[in-house]
Amino acid sequence: MSDWEDEYDEDGAAIPKSVTRSAPTESKLPINVYKTQNVSFGVRNGPRFGGPRQEKAVSGGKYGQWRGEGGLRNTDPEDGPGFRTLGGGRSGFSPVTITVENASVGRIIGKVNKGDYESEVVIFGSSPAQQKAKELIEDLVADCPSRGGGYNGGAGSGSVWSAEELQAANVTPVRQVIDWNAIRENKDKYEELKWKDVAPMKKNFYTEAKSVSMLTTEEVSEWRKENNNIFVDDLKEEGEKRPIPNPCRTFLEAFELYPEIMENIERVGFVKPTPIQSQAWPVLLSGEDLIAIAQTGTGKTLAYLLPGFIHMDGQPVPRDDRGGPGMLVLTPTRELALQIEEECNKYRYKGYKSVCVYGGGDRRGQINVVKKGVDIVIATPGRLNDLQMNELINLHSITYLVLDEADRMLDMGFEPQILKILLDIRPDRQTVMTSATWPVGVRRLARSYLKNPMMVYVGTLDLAAVNTVDQTILIVSEEEKKSYVFNFIRSMQPDDKVIIFVGKKLLVDDLSSDMCLQGLAVQSLHGDREQCDREEALKDFREGRVHILVATDLASRGLDVCDITHVFNYDFPRNIEEYVHRVGRTGRAGRSGAAVTLVTRENWKMAPELIPILERAGQDVPTELVLMAERYEKHKKEREMSNPREGQRRWGRREPKW
Ligand code: AMP
């Protein structure tokens, strides 16, 4: 997330943190002195401030105070010009606070306060003692040539200000206007210069096999549907969209021209490509940038590694003349880096060497391997950035870049390091980004650092399951929900098994107690239950001792009970992915399943996202849901019109087009 780090409102927009300004903290000051940090004691005094040091103690009667008549200067820009009283207190012995240049502080007793130049000195004791101390401090400070040119430049004034400074002090500061256009132009020029001597690069290594070209559109869409409902899109924003390559359903269709790759595949014994591989290989071998939305375990590592090998081998500049690695894989954690390295080491291609560079590992050892020369660097952003800043690794030679698990890298706060690393990698490289999710932060990163990417989205098995589930949507009020769920239970057949999903743990307990009271055999599952109770609940449900499980989304993913016949969404889930996961609990292993979902007015913002899911799965879309979606879209637009800035924040700036 992180962008990853704001809090979000119900629309998914970041809630700006309120800027609170603390009131003056009088109580922290030794006496009732406000803003003493904003008052310069007149050690810099000169003509403007009334000539050489003229401060003197002024007895304030009950609230004894002194002030430098000519030498006190209010330096707070928000306070405007003028003098401010220092000191003062409830007795004649109240402490006095003066402010002096930091440069002088080393020589006197004081504490550095806010600000770059000045320090605050609080003097305690009786008025005469304070006065005496103040004079001593003055003398000390006056003796101190605190600024580069010495303090006596003030033409015999005894001031620490030079004549130029004093003159400058009389001039109202002019706001510098930043010429952003010039800066941008310079940046572009600098970029051009920086990359003008890079080696030539080749990206396209793909020849479509005849059997792939011959696939009809229907065959392709059928194949995609059957293979985890894989979805491919061209994210090119300008000009005509490109044709989306057909999938390679066999290894040979992708790598017929690369026998060494085929040998490797035969050696490891894989039978056929995973869905992500089938769709990613033609895209990557064609030299296009790719965003792969896929989770670990889908075969995504091999999806980018094999085209990477071919890419490196096909570069016009010989390997030894490139001066550094050709492929970089950035990944969030040490474990993942090691896992990728292990995967990489399974394959032997042209003797390519890889190194794993991660924090916590043997830095010196990693540097030594890099120095000896490697082709592939698998790294966590922090450690790589460290090597980069210390010029221990050359990133200019990288032409194939992988940002693996981008969402997690952002969640872990690696964005600054990634951006620094990317500055040193040639902009015309080929880039692959993988991510398990597709939040705004990842979209923004992709938009900034990938060029006209293709996107391959591989759903989980749940997504495929969702197509085999009969989905009913009921628009109800909150009060009606209980009667709906009990009606549903009454209509259950003896072999039916249902998970009832609710939003809150308390409601799980509430609903399951109600059911128990009505004599129903029911189990419940949520995060506040003891582990042993959770295990027992699942066991009872799995083994059929109970046919009703009331649960939170704790049970929406990964729960593999193959004979669940129904999913009942008592509360609509927080997001549409969760809906898909919940529905995917039924209809597994080729069985049919049914889902009933209660939707209330409060869930209206989910309607526009729910409709396409239902349509894709060939389900009826209730008219009320369509109206709800329309109302929500209208409301969204109106809100945007009435408050364009808010609109921009909510739906414009934060949400890249894709
Ligand atoms: P990954 O999603 O990259 O973490 O891969 C998960 C596991 O799947 C790794 O152990 C791979 O070796 C394995 N794998 C990758 N591609 C295939 C394939 N085509 N067939 C079977 N296993 C594969």
UniProtKB/TrEMBL annotation:
EC number(s) on file: 3.6.4.13
Cited PROSITE patterns: DEAD_ATP_HELICASE, HELICASE_ATP_BIND_1, HELICASE_CTER, Q_MOTIF
Domain DEAD-box RNA helicase Q: 250-278
Motif interval(s): Q motif: 250-278
Biased composition annotated in UniProt, kind: Acidic residues: 1-12
Gly residues biased stretches: 61-71
Domain (Helicase ATP-binding) ranges: 281-456
Positions of the UniProt region annotated as Disordered: 1-30, 42-80, 635-658
Family matches, as Pfam families: DEAD, Helicase_C
UniProt protein name: RNA helicase
Designated gene of the protein: ddx43
